[in-house]
Write a structure and sequence with these properties.
This protein is mainly alpha-helical. It has four helices and two strands. About 65% of the residues lie in helices and about 5% in strands.
Length: about 140
């Protein structure tokens, strides 16, 4: 137990934070039986209950980092072919951006055609108006 070495955990709300409550007890344990203290922190075993505290922490952090890497990808794996969840979402967003850009280009072309047709109609109406004005001026 960690309490045998003067180490205790904080409250539940602190998320497992460790405190050295009795520094003298820890120093005494290190001086009297350093191998046992070392084994308590670093013992490696296949059985979780027999692993040392630091070994457990290392394994938990390694698993967590692997999980994060699976979701977010790693710095060296950022590419179009990354299989992480974030990379898939980025590719999906890029596809939607491309589709919207195509739609925007189509809208722009339609509006140019309409504007050109309107300009032609205005020119034709102006020409007719000028012709009519000329006919009534006699």
């Amino acid at each position: 137990q960690m309490t045998e070495y003067g180490i205790e955990t904080g409250s539940y709300f602190e998320g497992g934070k460790l405190y050295i409550k009795d520094e003298a007890r820890l120093k005494q344990a290190i001086n009297e039986n350093p191998d046992e203290v070392l084994k308590f922190f670093t013992n490696s075993s296949q059985n979780f209950e027999e692993q040392g505290v630091a070994r457990r922490l290392y394994n938990i952090l390694s698993d967590s980092m692997a999980s994060i890497t699976t979701q977010a990808g790693s710095e060296s794996s950022f590419s179009k072919y990354d299989q992480s969840i974030l990379a898939e979402r980025i590719r999906d967003i890029e596809k939607r951006i491309d589709a919207r850009e195509v739609r925007l280009t189509q809208l722009e072309q339609r509006y140019w055609r309409q504007f050109t047709a309107m300009e032609s109609a205005i020119q034709w109406a102006n020409a007719q108006s000028a012709w009519l004005a000329q006919q009534f001026s006699y």
